[in-house]
Amino acid sequence: MWDLNDEIIEEILARLPAKSLVRFNLVCKQWRYLISDPNFVRKHLNHVLVDESNNHHKLIVHSSPHFYSIDYHCEESLDSSTSTKRDFPLQSTNGLYFLGSCNGLLLLGFYDKTYLYNALVLWNPSFTDYNLLPESSFISTSGSVRLLGFGYDSSTKDYKVVRVITNSRYGKPMRDVEQKVEIYTLKTNSWKTIQGGIPFGNVSIEAVQGTLVNGSIYWIVTNADFVDKEEFDNLILAFDLIDEKFRSMGVPRYDDGESVWGSLVEVRGCLGLYQTLYQSPDVMIWILMEDENRNKCWTKLMKIPKDFGMYSRPAFFMKNDEVLLSIMSDECRKENKKLVVYNPRNMTFHNLPACGISDWWEETIYVETLVSPNGVGG
Known about the structure:
The two termini are about 25 Å apart. Strand 18 (about 270-275) and strand 19 (about 280-290) form a beta hairpin. Strands 12, 13, 14, 15 and 16 form a five-stranded antiparallel beta sheet that branches. A four-stranded antiparallel beta sheet has the order 3-2-1-25, with no helix packed on it. The protein has five helices and 25 strands. It has helices at about 5-15, 20-25, 30-35, 40-50, 135-140, and strands spanning about 55-65, 65-70, 85, 95-100, 105-110, 120-125, 130, 145-155, 160-165, 180-185, 190-195, 205, 210-215, 215-225, 235-240, 245-250, 265, 270-275, 280-290, 295-305, 310-315, 325-330, 335-345, 350, 360-365. The chain is mainly beta. It is about 10% helix and about 40% strand.
């Protein structure tokens, strides 16, 4: 049993950054046992998730062969000392891409010219642990991944990866291909197949990576019944991590009824969609809200001028309403990428040099936690 002083110490430790707790593992055996205890890991995670300061959120960038985390929300982020190199535990990082982020765990996949994403890795950048997920025999023999997502099932307190595999490449409607839906659970470290596949045979998949919001994973898809016409219609495909079922929902629409084509993003706990058309001077952002009758509807949240480049992607919406943007210039080269914070209240931009990192292809947001990719705590 812990005495009162030990309980106070535990409460103090549970509010500290994960990187500090990783170092404190060396202080004494008692602290090492405490910090690795699944109940403490969950307590620390809960404190991280309710923290209003954003201080636990980090931006991680992949500048092959290295990964770097950046404290983008601090003024000190202009100082190269706030960029921390993260040692990836596998030797090769070529063709490795971010596919999901949840509670401090990152899902990464090795991508090749056959679009397989068969090799998947769970990794917590706060320490060196990783988990190389089992492969799929279906992919190895004939398939390619069409949808992929990662998230947390609060009912079972388990992390799940869902993927839809087909026996053909992109472009064909799901009704015209053989498909298989597989779910990986961290507790079992294995894949299972759910029957039926995607119940919407008229959709054509456009993007592999899903967007996690409040226990569901979302993808933009195209209504394949429209592909041979001048107009096309878009839908959002959603997968509930608890009941493990798919459903569909509508996208925002213009005044003339035409559906908006864009990319999905999480906006402070809500589903958002952003559109960054080449010919448009602004990035338009919609958010899915509930009205007074608890009906969900799309609302325009803001528009962001493309003052820094034509290819602007919202990377994170901060709790102070500022938006972290990942921007690539018109040349679309990795050395031309930059980070910018946009303040919608006064419509100003704040350029954030990437802390001495010269070039990178992609980035994502994660929170620093003690959750293990091998199933301890969380």
